[in-house]
């Protein structure tokens, strides 16, 4: 029996697995734009100043959340950071709407490349035709990912969508995968985790002794894959054997 026939639930990573994306948050023009937006409401900041403040606030919130959740893998809500940057200043429009627009534009301006991989939609649709359940477990920001799922025409193809910023922790925190398994009453032996990262996707699955598929969309050579897998095994204290789709083509999932 093939892996697809044997399993009931398929849990996917998003970026680098279903969506091909590259971003550049080092681009000076991104911070120049952001400082202009905040200066328009009276903040009085330079591109360098708002960049440094942004990263400082991110670190501060991550440290606070890690302590509150007792996790090594905190995931903050970036809307809160953009709100913090306002300090005591208020835009003329509704603050929530202004922050939502800032967050979305920040993402769009940082993007270099964005599209769903060619196999993504056909594979998800075929899994549904076979009566399988399909889930998303993504280390991501709700304010970025919800509109990007719509843009990539993927939103309607999941039975459940789990975005880390909604929960306060991210893969490979066992609590993140555990929440999905609990909510949908998924038995790990009936599920498979599919993603392009050993340290997050593969580790998240094997924490629960779940079958995992490593999708090599980054084109890692065998030696590099072996090195990354070794780190997972050191973390777990045991050997693991994920399935590997060396080509990075998701359609080959049906051949495993």
Structural summary, described in words:
A six-stranded parallel β-sheet has the order 5-4-1-6-7-8, sandwiched between helices. It is elongated. With 256 residues, it is α/β, with parallel strands linked by helices. It starts with a helix and ends in an 11-residue tail after the last strand. Helices cover 46% and strands 15% of the residues. The protein has helices spanning 3-6, 28-39, 47-69, 78-86, 95-110, 120-129, 142-151, 174-183, 198-206, 222-236; strands at 9-12, 19-23, 111-116, 133-138, 160-163, 191-195, 211-215, 243-245. The chain has two domains: 3-18 and 117-255, Rossmann fold (3-Layer(aba) Sandwich); 23-112.
Keywords for this structure?
alpha/beta; 46% helix; 256 residues; Rossmann fold; six-stranded parallel sheet; elongated
Which spans of ≥5 residues are poorly predicted at pLDDT below 50?
none
- Main beta-sheet annotation: 6 strands, parallel
Name the CATH class of the largest domain: Alpha Beta
Number of helices: 10
Strand content: 5-15%
Q: What is the count of structural domains? A: 2
What gap, in angstroms, lies between the N and C termini? 9 Å
Order of helices and strands: HEEHHHHEHEHEHEHEHE
List how many beta strands DSSP finds: 8
Net shape = elongated
Which CATH architecture of the largest domain? 3-Layer(aba) Sandwich
CATH superfamily of the largest domain: HAD superfamily/HAD-like
Q: Going across the major beta sheet, what is the strand order?
A: 5-4-1-6-7-8
Rounded average pLDDT: 96
Q: If you consult CATH, what is the topology of the largest domain?
A: Rossmann fold
């Amino acid at each position: 029996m093939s892996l697809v026939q044997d399993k009931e639930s398929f849990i996917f990573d998003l970026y680098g697995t279903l969506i091909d994306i590259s971003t550049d948050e080092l681009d000076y023009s991104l911070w120049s734009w952001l400082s202009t937006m905040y200066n328009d409401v009276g903040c009085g900041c330079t591109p360098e100043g708002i960049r440094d403040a942004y990263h400082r606030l991110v670190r501060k919130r991550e440290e606070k959340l890690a302590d509150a959740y007792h996790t090594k893998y905190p995931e903050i809500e970036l809307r809160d950071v953009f709100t913090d940057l306002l300090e005591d200043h208020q835009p003329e429009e509704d603050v929530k709407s202004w922050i939502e627009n800032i967050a979305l534009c920040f993402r769009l301006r940082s993007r270099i490349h964005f599209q769903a991989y060619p196999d993504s939609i056909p594979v998800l649709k075929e899994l549904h035709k076979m009566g399988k359940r399909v889930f998303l477990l993504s280390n991501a920001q709700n304010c970025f990912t919800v509109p990007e799922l719509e843009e990539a025409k993927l939103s309607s193809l999941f039975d459940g969508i789990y975005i880390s910023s909604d929960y306060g922790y991210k893969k490979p925190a066992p609590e993140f995968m555990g929440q999905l398994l609990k909510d949908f009453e998924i038995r790990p032996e009936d599920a498979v985790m599919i993603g392009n990262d050993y340290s997050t996707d593969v580790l998240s699955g094997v924490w629960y002794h779940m079958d995992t598929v490593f999708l090599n969309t980054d084109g890692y050579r065998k030696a590099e894959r072996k090195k990354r897998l070794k780190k997972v095994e050191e973390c777990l204290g045991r050997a693991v054997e994920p399935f590997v789709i060396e080509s990075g083509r998701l359609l080959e999932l049906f051949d495993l």
